Amino acid sequence: MSLSPNKTQIRFVIKPLVFGAALIPFALLLLRIFEIYGSGLGPNPIETVQDELGIWGLRLILISLAVTPLAWLLKKPWPLRLRRMLGLYAFFYCCLHFLVWLLLDQRLNMTAIIEDVIKRPFITLGTLALLLLIPLAITSTAGWQKRLGKRWLNLHRLVYPIAVLIVWHYYWQVKLDALDAIAYSLLLAGLLGLRLWKRKRL
Q1: Which residues contact 197 (CB under 8 A, 6 or more apart)?
Q2: How many domains are contained in the chain?
Q3: Which residues of the chain have pLDDT under 70?
Q4: How far apart are CA 74 and CA 59, in angstroms?
């Protein structure tokens, strides 16, 4: 396949491949939960599931942000057609990450939930990031884009502060073992820096 696939190739080859690839971490996690694959979930299975879902939410946010620089590099617009799918998958994993914490970790204990959100800054950041992701997910369709017009672009620029909040949330969560968090922070800084550089050149 060339670097300039046609609409049919994008729709019936590339998009299904990306769709399936983004589901693989979830499928592998399910196999580990049911002890079909891997070495299980360790001594704290709820924390393991929660962390796996969260890290893939973070990774997919960064991958979705990398789509635009990839289109610049290739000098082709077709990668942009994958951005919405990747963003929705990031939302999917972030929602599951939050639900595991809400239902399995906190067991819907509203007092404990509110205390955690107020007293633990990394949870505050994560909750805020998820709340900001919700309107982006809802308005991700072409219909909403047409309905909102120029306001749609302004709304979806929220993805940049959201990505910062998610990386920050992860950095504060991992505490001492922060090498991965630093790497993700540098990657995000690079992706945002590329956008600033591109804007200044225009």
Answers
A1: none
A2: 1
A3: 1-3, 176, 202
A4: 22
DSSP category for residue 191: H
Print the domain residue range for 117: 7-201
Q: DSSP letter at 78?
A: G
Amino acid identity at 101: W
In this structure, is residue 155 part of a structural domain? yes
CB 93 within 8 A of CB 53: yes
Task: Kindly report the three-state secondary structure assignment for every residue of 93-152.
Answer: HHHHHHHHHHHHHCCCCHHHHHHHHHHCHHHHHHHHHHHHHHHHHHCCCHHHHHHHCHHH
Q: How many residues does the chain have?
A: 202
Distance, in Å, from the CA atom of 189 to the CA atom of 87, rounded to the nearest integer, reads: 18
Residue range 33-61, pLDDT digits in tens = 998 887 789 889 999 999 999 999 999 99
Largest CA distance in the chain: 56
User: pTM of the entire structure?
Assistant: 0.94
